[in-house]
Amino acid sequence: MTTTATTSRHDAGPDETAGQPAGPEQTRDDRARTILIISAGVSEPSSTDMLADRFARAAGVTADRAGVRVTVRRIGLRPLAQEIMQALVGGLRSERLESAVTALAHADGVVIATPIYKAGMSGLLKSFLDVLDQDLLVAKPAALLATAGTARHALAVDIELRGVLAFFRTLTVPTSVLATGGDWFDPGLGERVERAAAELIALVADDVERAMTRSTWSSYDHTFDSAAERRRDDGPDFDTDLMRLAAGGE
């Protein structure tokens, strides 16, 4: 799924590798920002995917109003489940899983969407996070979405998921979104989605990740030969068979 808002308000300037020093002349650029949704929904159809779609639409509308060019993409973890487990056990990532990790490294912002089970994020999402380099998400803006069967899980997003992302030094937006069965027609859910989308777009538009890591990257602990260190200016190729399959296409 791709959503694009195509009005620009930024001064032109060169792109750079994440975490690498930029020249003093660079402030903003007019490139399209990329937001990657990581969805851990396991059913078809999935309420987690539905919430992610709702967020994508809100982000597109918000970006368009702000005059920011944004492309929203999504990778589902369900087709990668076996490869994630193999990476955990054997330590080797498949080409398809490596492509997903690279896409995450290149994204200007990320949306983490997960079902909540037993007051915690899905095991599929936690396993995916476990195979990531610890510096992959440093200062990366992130929004947190979750679905659950009951409001008893309300604190799971802010206590568990936000806590795990704090280990990665991720810049999570203030508003998290939890949708339970009775929330879908409640205006309050739409308001929370729109607020979280606006917060993420604000951080992504100002290129906060690069601004924060430009002068601090060398002070963090890094994984040897991590995807964050190997990030290229041209970004990952989403138009491949592997990436289309990971995104749920044919």
Question: Can you give a write-up of this model?
Answer:
- The chain is globular.
- The protein is α/β, with parallel strands linked by helices and 250 residues long.
- The protein has helices spanning 47-66, 81-90, 95-106, 123-130, 156-167, 187-205, 208-213, 241-246, and strands at residues 3-5, 33-39, 70-76, 109-117, 120-121, 141-147, 171-172, 177-179.
- It starts with a strand and ends with a helix.
- It contains 8 helices and 8 strands, in the order E-E-H-E-H-H-E-E-H-E-H-E-E-H-H-H.
- The protein has a single domain (29-245), classed as Rossmann fold.
Features:
about 35% helix, single chain, alpha/beta, about 15% strand, 8 strands, Rossmann fold, about 250 residues
